[in-house]
Amino acid sequence: MTLLQSFNIAKSGLDTASTRLTNHSTNIANAATPYYKRKIPVVSESNMVSFQGVLEDMRNNLFRTGLTFQSNGASYEGFVEDPTPGQKVYQPGHPQADENGYITLSNVNVVNDMADAIMASKLYEANLSVVSITRQMANKALEIGRGGQ
Known about the structure:
By secondary structure, the protein is an alpha+beta fold. It is built from three helices and four strands. Helix 1 packs antiparallel against helix 3.
């Protein structure tokens, strides 16, 4: 894997984590909005690589100088609406009440979305660390190329 590939994978992770964080923030902001449906982010790994495949590649190419790891990182595929029904509440004076006087509250569970937002934040930090470490590796390689000065 080249340094540029490392940067690209980390960038895709940063983008995905940022979008997930925005998604969960929107859910939390709309927790009190009637008829709002919680949106669940869909994230996938590009060019998924299995652990078994990596081990087989190592075994088959034992005397090669390095492993080839093909991945393009993560990608945000959009969202799906949470099918969990919101609670129906009798409020006949509400402007959005149905013919029977009920409104459907949002199906957002703030605790779940806060936990998911914290996870997205930690994923963002992890990818930021990858960028920092990769930058340090590139700087060390440049130092070695200059003769260690």
